Amino acid sequence: MTKEAAFAELYAAHYRQVRGLCRQLLGSTERGEDAAQEAFVRAYRAFDRHDPSQPFIAWIMRIARNHCLDVLRRRSHEAKLFGDEAVETAAAEAPAADGLGAALTAERATAVNAAVAKLPERYRVPLALAYYADADYDDIATTLGITRNHVGVLLCRAKQLLRQSLDDADAADDGATAARGGAAPMEGSR
Amino acid sequence: MTCPSPVTLSMYADGELFGSDAAALERHASACAACRARIEELREESVVLRAALRHADELAPIPRFAPPPRARDFVVLALAVALIGGFSKAFWSTVAAAIPTELTWVSPLKSGTLFERAVDVLAFTFYEAPTMLTAVTNFIGAALVLAFIAWLALSTARPRAFAGLAASLLAVAVAIGLPSPGHALELRRSNDAVTIAAGETIDDTVLVMSRIVSVDGTINGDLIALGQEVTVRGNVTGNLVTAAQLVTVEGTIGGTVIGSAETLSVTNTRIGRDLYGFANNIEIAAGTNVSGNAVTAANTVNLDGRVGIDFKGFGSRLNVSGAVEGDVEGHADSIAVLSTARIGGNVTGHVDEAGDLDISSGAVVGGNVDEQIVEREERRNRYLTVRYYVDQIVRLGAAFLTGVLLLWLFPVLRSVSLPDATAVVRSGAIGLTAAVTLPVAALILCVTIVGLPLGVLTFLIGAVALYFSKTVVAQTIGRAILRDPENPPHFAATLITGLVVVIVAVNLPFIGGIANVVLTLVGLGIIVSLVLARFNRDAPA
């Protein structure tokens, strides 16, 4: 099998997963698709150097992750992309922050994805790495250049905001009966 | 006892709390039902979250993977430009060689001078509209620069946002760079007949396409008329460009007449500038006055009118019975200057044999009469000269080198095959269709002023495809000869084998010309089929 054919097969098998990671890291489907293409282009260029005994998916996901983080860093004007650990910890442990809510249910996948897309970058990125790319805290901490504890704080905060966002969407739906269809206004919850 | 912080619970639920921290939390949880429930909730939540995040991409469409442009692509661009320049001459002579002798008169390619004349016509068109020339040159230059920038942008920045930006910039630049027509254009089309009546006056460039075109009125601008029968009896202040089976001009043309027809008949017409005629028969009847030059390429030309400057004729019979103020130059089988003729300058005839240039006794020639015998190569037995074989070896070498390059650049061409006679015939038919339609399409593009660069480009692409058509066939033949499924031969080996066969075939006496045409058309067909297949595959992606 030629290089092109072999690569095309891997592309077809893993495109969706890579696209998903990029979409969540970058917070937009379109940017995610571009980044996924770019990741595959980079992989294609470096394909000769890929060790076939290693799983391709891990390799391409790593390439995609690095590319997306590069994009985010380039785009960001803030020096501290992931906020201040102490400030985030205070926010996560504020009395009203961890309010319960059975907001996250399987039927609400679309709403959950919309809410994730609207999360600020500093929460969305670790969330995607932890729950989509299945990276552990140490890995995320190294990748993002923050402490392990900071990762835990950001993830806790991300889920809090997600719950609030989905609760707010429910409230809006109930109140106005407006068929806004699960889009969650995040502004009120921050 | 205070409960652990939400962060600690979240980390524990994620399985990321270790050592004494984890032990402390577990001690607390064994006594605190609320915290136990919370940890359970968090674990369920993360399962749901993982599923939800995966859900959105499960049905996402998979776009076609576009491999990154490589340096090879730029080589293609650069080579295309170089090859077009370098091989157009070889191409013209190949095509000229492929045309049977009886039809040589229709081939403007047979005569190098005539080809130059065609270039003159183009140059003349440019001269007529210098602004257009500038615009076109700028356009081509800008397009090349933009193409280069776009290629650079696309190869360095893959994201679609950049590609989209580059494409829109290109589109805007093209829209700005496009040469705009000098003035308004009136377009008339009909399937049957278009008549511009005697009283009618149009102050525009007029483009008429119809089966029968009759112009009796006045056109203050250029007239471009395409049809089966075109008759111009009125007054055109600008140029007349026409292509039809039968073209009759009996009016007043302020500018230049460029006519292409089976029969071009000019009677009692005043032409303010030059006359360029391409036809089977051209009649320039008495009473016609061409103020500038007359240039004709036709089987038979009868010049009975007056030409203000020079007359140049290419064809098989030239009969001059009118008045030419300047020189007469003819390339023909026979040139007759009849007794009524009045030539102000020299008469030069390029003919095959002495006596083919005949000056009747009553004719008046102001300058010299010069009969030049054209040495035609095919009159000698070419197979007896060493030069011929050297030429063929050089040709084989050149074809091999360009062919290897072609197959290296387009690997898809290495594996084309024609499994049976039907495939050969089909490819030939496709090739013939392409050979007929491409020049027509290019001509139509050229006629519309805006399309001129596109038209020229179409010609050039067609020329390149024609040049490589025999290479593609040679590769197919070579593969058939050296077929070995176990150990496929290298494409260079199959190519050289096929090229030897092809070059021998096209040099066979008597049937070589036909072999040349057939091989060229089959190869062109293969190329066109491949291009079409590629488009069809790309379209639905």
Produce the secondary structure layout:
The complex is a heterodimer of chains A (190) and B (541).
Chain A: H1 3-26, H2 29-45, H3 56-75, H4 85-92, H5 109-118, H6 121-131, H7 137-144, H8 148-176
Chain B: H1 6-13, H2 19-31, H3 33-55, H4 71-98, H5 112-128, H6 130-156, H7 160-177, E1 185-189, E2 193-196, E3 201-202, E4 205-209, E5 212-215, E6 218-219, E7 223-226, E8 229-232, E9 235-236, E10 240-249, E11 252-253, E12 257-266, E13 270-271, E14 275-284, E15 289-290, E16 294-303, E17 306-307, E18 311-320, E19 323-324, E20 328-337, E21 342-343, E22 347-351, E23 357-359, E24 364-365, E25 369-373, H8 386-409, H9 421-447, H10 452-481, H11 491-506, H12 512-538
Parallel strand pairs in B: 1-4, 2-5, 3-6, 4-7, 5-8, 6-9, 7-10, 8-10, 9-11, 10-12, 11-13, 12-14, 13-15, 14-16, 15-17, 16-18, 17-19, 18-20, 19-21, 20-22, 20-23, 21-24, 22-25
Q: What's the total helix number of chain A?
A: 8
Query: Any low-confidence stretches of chain B, pLDDT <50, length ≥5?
Result: 100-114, 175-184
- Kindly report the average pLDDT value of chain A: 80
Number of strands of chain A: 0
Quaternary organisation: heterodimer
Largest sheet of chain A: none
Number of strands of chain B: 25
Global morphology of chain B: elongated
> Ends of chain B: how far apart?
63 Å
| Structural category of chain A | mainly alpha
Structural domain count of chain A: 2
Order of helices and strands of chain A: HHHHHHHH
| Helix count from the secondary structure assignment of chain B | 12
Helix content of chain B: 40-55%
- Structural class, from helix and strand content of chain B? alpha/beta
Would you tell me the overall average pLDDT of chain B? 76
Radius of gyration of chain A: 18 Å
Largest interface: A-B, 52 and 35 residues
